[in-house]
Amino acid sequence: GLSQYSSDPRTEWDLSAYSTRDQVLEAMRNLRYKGGNTFTGLALTHVLEQNLKPDAGARLEAEKLVILLTDGKSQDDANLAAQTLKNLGIEIFAIGVKNADEAELKQVASEPLELTVYNVLDFPLLSSLVGKLTRVLCTRIKEKRHKESADIPVNTGPQLSPTDLKISSVTSKSMHLTWSPPLRPPKKYRIVYYPSKGGIPKEVILDGAVSSLRLSNLTSHTEYLVSVFPIYDTVVGDGLRGVTSTLPLSSPRSLRVSELSHNSIRLSWKAAQGATQYLVLCSVAPDGAED
């Protein structure tokens, strides 16, 4: 599977999209480069929530590996997002090109860093990493298979996944989430939320016995993406997702103009609920516009 990112991550193809080497190579040849910003934390969260899910082709019994390729320093908190993936048993390999921050690569990558961090001066030099990286990846997968037990749950239906996400009591700064827990209670819940048009993901970790949460300190008049993930000892259940916009701040109403003179006017309006100050702007109307 492959995703590109700048300020907004984009899935190019899922894990289940292709089944042969030639198909993948052909998809790579047709890939269009996505320029722009470097929100690596948002990209890692996108991979967790969108690409490493059963409906995108991820198999619960398979090892989960993420290879991050970046040519710049992240503009958001990549370390927090990476730690979330690593806490869930997902292994991260970090490859830097040109202006990548090596210290950040080492923060993001899994241990041991001598096997998971690579840095080259320019894009053509990436080809020199292919042989070693392939051997390391295959070896790591074999090692992890030997270490882990074979009785990992493979049911992502109602037994492991919450249902019926409801978002209520929405204000300009907060909203309330509730959901129905899965048949098998999780150890914890991980709630991730961020503005749909791009922004730093925030997360809350809840005890598995809790099935509601109030999100506060939100930005007004903003659409938020919300995800709820159940976390078990050896697996992450299917997440719930919702989209809701916070309310706009209340506005002053019924603007009236009175007491006009050659150099003054009086303005009056109905108050805006919660406003502590008002900013009044005035300018000369352009020629031909209404006075």
From TrEMBL:
Calcium is among the record's keywords: no
Signal peptide: none
CDD domains: FN3
A cellular component term, taken from the record's GO annotations: collagen trimer
Keywords linked to the UniProt accession: Collagen, Extracellular matrix, Secreted
Gene3D superfamilies cross-referenced by the UniProt entry: Immunoglobulins, von Willebrand factor, type A domain
Highest rank taxon of the organism: Eukaryota
Matches recorded under InterPro entries: ECM_Assembly_Org (IPR050525), FN3_dom (IPR003961), FN3_sf (IPR036116), Ig-like_fold (IPR013783), VWF_A (IPR002035), vWFA_dom_sf (IPR036465)
UniProt xrefs under PROSITE patterns: FN3 (PS50853), VWFA (PS50234)
Domain VWFA: 1-133
TM regions (residue ranges): none
UniProt keyword Manganese present: no
Fibronectin type-III domain segment(s): 161-250
Location of the protein in the cell: Secreted, Extracellular space, Extracellular matrix
Protein name: Collagen alpha-1(XX) chain
Organism, scientific name: Eudyptes sclateri
